[in-house]
């Protein structure tokens, strides 16, 4: 054995909180794999315990889910997730929240999360704020694009956070807190498979809202390619934060 050979540096790892099987990290996983970053999944639907801290983990990703942040009685792990998010903020570790994940970030920062006037489900335009033009993740990207949405709850921009995106129906669609924490209410991470799985999983909700799965699937071919191109740029840039120390 050659003792002079340098030890292989351990790969960075990120904790991913996943709340339902159909809402995976999607193309975020591709960006992490390309960067050689390991993924440590905590799946609440499999009753995995929420860690009390991130220890040696490089950062935290919090995915979407059908529950609301204020349903602590039904889902007690939500408060545990808020404590973990708060600890990540204190430790200045990169945090990425998608849909429910962004709502958990917002409420942790003191913003009110509440039911919106109507649910925003399907493909709707998103407009970037002027602040996005100089943002580390969003600069040099289209200021208007059509994104995939699936949410009933909304939130106000948290204090000390920077507004990044809005839609006609929802004034706060994305924000940055500090330099490493980002919350996106819309789904920038989706794949075609994920969208098909979501319309199947939440078919009852679509029926109540008088939305057909077919209408969502039909528009997917038109809008998903550009969304994935944008998502690849945004998530690729966020992943670099995990290696910046």
Main beta-sheet strand count, sense and barrel state? 9 strands, mixed
> Which architecture per CATH?
3-Layer(aba) Sandwich
User: Judging from the principal axes of the Cα atoms, what is the shape?
Assistant: globular
The total count of strands amounts to 9
The CA-CA distance between the termini, in Å, is 32 Å
The amount of beta strand, in percent, is: 25-35%
Provide a count of the helices: 6
Tally the structural domains: 1
What's the alpha carbon Rg, rounded to whole Å?
18 Å
Helix content: 25-40%
In spatial order, strands of the major sheet run: 2-1-3-4-9-8-7-5-6
CATH H-tier superfamily: Class I glutamine amidotransferase (GATase) domain
CATH class: Alpha Beta
Give unreliable regions as ranges.
none
Q: What name is given to the CATH topology?
A: Rossmann fold
What does the secondary structure layout of this molecule look like, with pairings?
Blueprint: E1 13-18, H1 27-34, E2 38-43, E3 59-62, H2 77-90, E4 95-98, H3 100-108, E5 113-128, E6 144-155, E7 161-166, E8 174-177, E9 181-184, H4 192-201, H5 203-208, H6 213-242
Parallel strand pairs: 1-2, 1-3, 3-4, 4-9
Antiparallel strand pairs: 5-6, 5-7, 7-8, 8-9
Helix pairs in contact: 1-6, 2-3, 4-6
Task: Give a quick summary of the entry.
The chain is an alpha/beta fold and 245 residues long.
Tell me what you see in this structure.
This protein has helices spanning 27-34, 77-90, 100-108, 192-201, 203-208, 213-242; strands at 13-18, 38-43, 59-62, 95-98, 113-128, 144-155, 161-166, 174-177, 181-184. With 245 residues, it is of the alpha/beta class. It has one domain: Class I glutamine amidotransferase (GATase) domain (Rossmann fold), CATH 3.40.50. The protein has a nine-stranded mixed sheet, sandwiched between helices. The radius of gyration is 18 Å and the shape is globular.
């Amino acid at each position: 054995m050659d003792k002079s050979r340098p030890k292989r540096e351990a790969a960075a790892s990120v904790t991913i909180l996943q709340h339902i099987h159909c809402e995976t990290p999607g193309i975020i996983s591709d960006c992490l794999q390309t960067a050689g970053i390991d993924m440590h999944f905590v799946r609440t639907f499999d009753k995995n315990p929420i860690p009390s801290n991130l220890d040696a983990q490089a950062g935290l990703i919090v995915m979407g889910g059908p529950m609301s942040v204020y349903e602590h009685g039904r889902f007690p792990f939500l408060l545990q997730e808020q404590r973990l998010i708060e600890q990540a903020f204190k430790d200045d570790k990169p945090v990425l929240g998608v849909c429910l994940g962004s709502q958990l970030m917002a409420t942790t920062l003191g913003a009110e999360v509440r039911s919106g006037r109507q649910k925003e489900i399907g493909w709707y335009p998103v407009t970037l704020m002027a602040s996005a033009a100089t943002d580390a993740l969003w600069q040099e990207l289209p200021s208007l694009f059509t994104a995939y949405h699936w949410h009933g709850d909304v939130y106000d921009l948290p204090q000390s956070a920077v507004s990044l995106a809005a839609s006609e129906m929802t004034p706060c669609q994305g924000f940055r807190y500090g330099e490493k924490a980002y919350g996106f209410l819309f789904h920038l991470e989706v794949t075609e498979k994920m969208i098909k799985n979501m319309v199947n999983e939440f078919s009852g909700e679509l029926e109540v809202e008088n939305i057909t799965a077919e209408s969502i699937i039909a528009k997917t071919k038109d809008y998903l390619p550009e969304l994935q191109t944008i998502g690849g740029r945004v998530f690729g840039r966020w992943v670099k934060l995990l290696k910046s120390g």
